[in-house]
Amino acid sequence: MSTRPHREQIRREGIRALQAAALSLVERHGFAAVTVDDIAAEAGVSRRTFFNYFPTKAAALFDPDPDDAERLAQLLADADGAPELWPALRRVCTAFVTGHENVIAVRRRLIEQHPELDQYHRTAHHHVEIALHEWTARQPGADPYVAALAANTAATTLTTSFAAWQPDQDPATLVDLVDRAFALISTGFTRHSDALH
Fold first, then answer.
1. 8 A C-beta contact, residue 110 and residue 26
2. Separation of alpha carbons 155 and 133, rounded Å
3. DSSP assigned state of 34
4. What is the CA radius of gyration of the chain?
5. Number of folded domains that form the chain
6. pLDDT number for residue 13
7. Range of the domain at 99
8. What is the pTM of this model?
9. Do both 42 and 105 map to the same domain?
10. Shared-domain flag, residues 165 and 91
11. Other beta carbons within 10 Å of 137
């Protein structure tokens, strides 16, 4: 029997343990006060093990969960062949954000306090935009321009909602913001004033 699945499970557990330690420590003590050694110690591993998984402290805080790409791929696969792109993308994006709110809350507060981390966060999650583009492009009869426009717009709803969401708000509000963004675009912003209240 191959040991690859077992090794992969160990790898994923190691990543998650370090991410959880990093997020917990930074939430309690602040970004500047926490070191790689602190994170490793909190997770019960060596400094060397930390660097086997992450190149930097920011990576431990912002890199996606090991299952994120597969989860998004499954949501998109389930939406294959949908009669309309935009409603399907709306369902996928709101479902994808749901369940990540508490982790995202810590990341949002970090970026609020340290704006220089925003670019790393965007880069670390660029795989979402790529996946949306690949999905729209492979839909039957999809016009390449419309497919690219829909994917770009969907990705922008996610980044804009994240940026607009305030760190002290209920984390679940992020899902509402994403859904509202899709609704506003669907109606051509004819009720844009709703977004201001």
1. yes
2. 9
3. -
4. 19
5. 2
6. 93
7. 68-196
8. 0.85
9. no
10. yes
11. 13
